[in-house]
Amino acid sequence: MQMLTKLRPFVRRFLKEASDMFEMYIYTMGDKAYAIEIAKLLDPDNVYFGSKVISNSDCTQRHQKGLDVVLGDESVAVILDDTEYVWQKHKENLILMERYHYFASSCRQFGFGARSLSETMQDERENDGALATILDVLERIHTIFFDPDDQKPLSSRDVRQVIKRVRQEVLQGCKLVFTRVFPLHQRPQDQMLWKMAEQLGAVCCTDVDSTVTHVVALDLGTEKARWAISNKKFLVHPRWIEAANFRWQRQQEEDFPVARPKEKGKENAADAPISKENGDKNAADAANAKKGNENVADAGSTKEGSKENADDAANSEEGSKENADDAANAEKSKSDGAASGATGSNAAECHQKEKQLIKQEAEDAAAIVTKKEEEHDAGDEATPEEEYGGVAKYVRGGRCVEAEVAAAAAARRGKKWEPEQAAPFWVATS
């Protein structure tokens, strides 16, 4: 198994400064060989970790990490990890790190629905990235734990209480109400986001009143969301709480706005000119669709009794969708006149040519892949350089494959090929 590893920005300084405060271990669920290689990468001069490298073969419980293999009492251990469920017995010791999704394969592996840092050609900043943020938290915890004014002897102090205290300062003074964030018929108090907010020091409730400071919502179409706007309260997306949890400080509310419901009526209006070009009948249908949008909006407005009611947008969407279907059906009509008939004929001809071209490309791609596989199976096992020379190559399943072959294989499956797809096991480590 081959692996490409990208070190997180600020990691060198982080290790140097953290080592002045803590005795550090590497603890991974990977095997021993992987753990040793990562240790060499993080600590090439063997300054920070020495033999303090723990792998899955050292664990005493399957699929779980435990402090029983670490020299030291639980009351003085601080854990940094991006995976919470492996520390079921030691959550109070855990500082949860934000995952480092540098490669696209990492986003796909963990179901992260956004582009990776490499795809956006960006990276975390060293001065305020994840490691710099956590280093500040560790310094605060260390300072409080060894506070000389504390009357307790060191042997009776507990770092878990210090972590809890620092965490509760993040959203202290905030009173939150959630609206349409949790599933119906389930207790909000049992939801992870509710518990997270309370751990950060916020007070959570189910009803609004004058003491509420924040309303947490996914859209503006709820009564509580409108209440927040009219009463000048903070209206934030749930990601505001998650960001505070990772960053260990209250985030700017304006950076986490609640989006308005999407309006499809505007899209239908943009389609109207296209319908008009295809014939008078389509233009009339498009005009009716536009009028239908207005009628639906008026009906929604009358029902709710307020023009600023965000629910109108939802009603308008349903009416717009029906009208858009009518416009689309009218657009497909072949009886709109000679002009539209000629357009339909040209479109059919282009579509047929495109199908033939796609079929030919697929056949060519299949032939290339088959030829390469036969050549590889027939010959002796060669080194990547001997087999592919100077052609760009990527790792897949332990052997190297030319970019053109990988692209051809993807084309045969009707997919677009990307370099990261050739190595789904690539990971980025912190």
From TrEMBL:
<keyword id="KW-0678">Repressor</keyword>
<feature type="region of interest" description="Disordered">
    <location>
        <begin position="411"/>
        <end position="430"/>
    </location>
</feature>
<feature type="compositionally biased region" description="Basic and acidic residues">
    <location>
        <begin position="350"/>
        <end position="362"/>
    </location>
</feature>
<comment type="subunit">
    <text>Interacts with RAP74.</text>
</comment>
<dbReference type="InterPro" id="IPR001357">
    <property type="entry name" value="BRCT_dom"/>
</dbReference>
<comment type="function">
    <text>This promotes the activity of RNA polymerase II.</text>
</comment>
<feature type="region of interest" description="Disordered">
    <location>
        <begin position="252"/>
        <end position="390"/>
    </location>
</feature>
<dbReference type="GO" id="GO:0003723">
    <property type="term" value="F:RNA binding"/>
</dbReference>
<keyword id="KW-0805">Transcription regulation</keyword>
<keyword id="KW-0804">Transcription</keyword>
<dbReference type="InterPro" id="IPR023214">
    <property type="entry name" value="HAD_sf"/>
</dbReference>
<feature type="domain" description="FCP1 homology">
    <location>
        <begin position="1"/>
        <end position="124"/>
    </location>
</feature>
<dbReference type="GO" id="GO:0005634">
    <property type="term" value="C:nucleus"/>
</dbReference>
<dbReference type="InterPro" id="IPR039189">
    <property type="entry name" value="Fcp1"/>
</dbReference>
<keyword id="KW-0539">Nucleus</keyword>
<feature type="compositionally biased region" description="Acidic residues">
    <location>
        <begin position="376"/>
        <end position="388"/>
    </location>
</feature>
<dbReference type="Pfam" id="PF00533">
    <property type="entry name" value="BRCT"/>
</dbReference>
<keyword id="KW-0479">Metal-binding</keyword>
<dbReference type="GO" id="GO:0046872">
    <property type="term" value="F:metal ion binding"/>
</dbReference>
<dbReference type="Pfam" id="PF03031">
    <property type="entry name" value="NIF"/>
</dbReference>
<dbReference type="InterPro" id="IPR036412">
    <property type="entry name" value="HAD-like_sf"/>
</dbReference>
<feature type="domain" description="BRCT">
    <location>
        <begin position="166"/>
        <end position="258"/>
    </location>
</feature>
<dbReference type="InterPro" id="IPR004274">
    <property type="entry name" value="FCP1_dom"/>
</dbReference>
<dbReference type="InterPro" id="IPR011947">
    <property type="entry name" value="FCP1_euk"/>
</dbReference>
<keyword id="KW-0378">Hydrolase</keyword>
<dbReference type="GO" id="GO:0008420">
    <property type="term" value="F:RNA polymerase II CTD heptapeptide repeat phosphatase activity"/>
</dbReference>
<feature type="compositionally biased region" description="Low complexity">
    <location>
        <begin position="336"/>
        <end position="348"/>
    </location>
</feature>
<protein>
    <recommendedName>
        <fullName>RNA polymerase II C-terminal domain phosphatase-like</fullName>
        <ecNumber>3.1.3.16</ecNumber>
    </recommendedName>
</protein>
<feature type="compositionally biased region" description="Basic and acidic residues">
    <location>
        <begin position="318"/>
        <end position="335"/>
    </location>
</feature>
<dbReference type="GO" id="GO:0009651">
    <property type="term" value="P:response to salt stress"/>
</dbReference>
<keyword id="KW-0694">RNA-binding</keyword>
<dbReference type="InterPro" id="IPR036420">
    <property type="entry name" value="BRCT_dom_sf"/>
</dbReference>
<feature type="compositionally biased region" description="Basic and acidic residues">
    <location>
        <begin position="260"/>
        <end position="269"/>
    </location>
</feature>
